[in-house]
Amino acid sequence: MQTKVCTMCKSAKPLSEFNFCRAKNGKKYPSSMCKACNTVYRTRYAHEKEGVTPYEHNPACSQYLGIHIAERILSHCFEDVKRMPYGNPGYDFICKRGFKIDVKSGCLRAMKRVKSTNYYWMFQIDRNAVADYFLCLAFDSRENSPRSSCLVINS
């Protein structure tokens, strides 16, 4: 098994712990930092240099609104709801019985027709085979609380 030393944490790790970059000649090379250190570096850079506030501390952020409302709704439906880390593949919450719940939120969209305009919400749930349940939050706009919510069983 091949290993490489991370330039940030100075530990030897297998190549699977590194992202790969493609050079101009088409060959792939492992990056200098491991995936964990790269995430820390990018997050720190975004906060310090670009002035990005993490969504956990920014009530104006749509993720903040969706996640906190979703947690409140799920606590009424399931016992001991646990939030998964951001970016967890397939689901956002897990409950006491082990049900995996994915939260989807959407803002009202307009489809302009010749004589009328139709409004709708769109939720992409067809590609997720991991979650047991979906919580769909429909917002009229980013400033309003959700209009309706529903639990859909993944079949």
What features would you describe in this structure?
The chain folds into two domains: 29 residues, no CATH class; 94 residues, no CATH class. It has a five-stranded mixed beta sheet with strand order 5-6-7-10-11, with helices on one face. The protein has two helices and eleven strands; from the N terminus they run ββββααβββββββ. The chain is of the alpha+beta class and 155 residues long. The model has no long low-confidence stretch (mean pLDDT 79). It is 19% helix and 34% strand. A hairpin with a 5-residue loop joins strand 3 and strand 4.
Q: What's the multimeric state?
A: single chain
Number of strands: 11
3D shape: extended
Uncertain residue segments: none
Helicity level, as a percent range?
A: 10-25%
State the distance separating the first and last CA atoms. Answer: 40 Å
Instruction: Sketch the major β-sheet.
Output: 5 strands, mixed
Structural class: alpha+beta
Which sequence of SSEs, written as H and E, runs from N to C?
EEEEHHEEEEEEE
Task: Kindly report the average pLDDT value.
Answer: 79
Number of domains: 2
Q: Largest beta sheet: what is the strand line-up?
A: 5-6-7-10-11
Please compute the radius of gyration using only Cα atoms.
Answer: 20 Å
How many helices? The count is 2
> Beta fraction of the residues?
25-35%
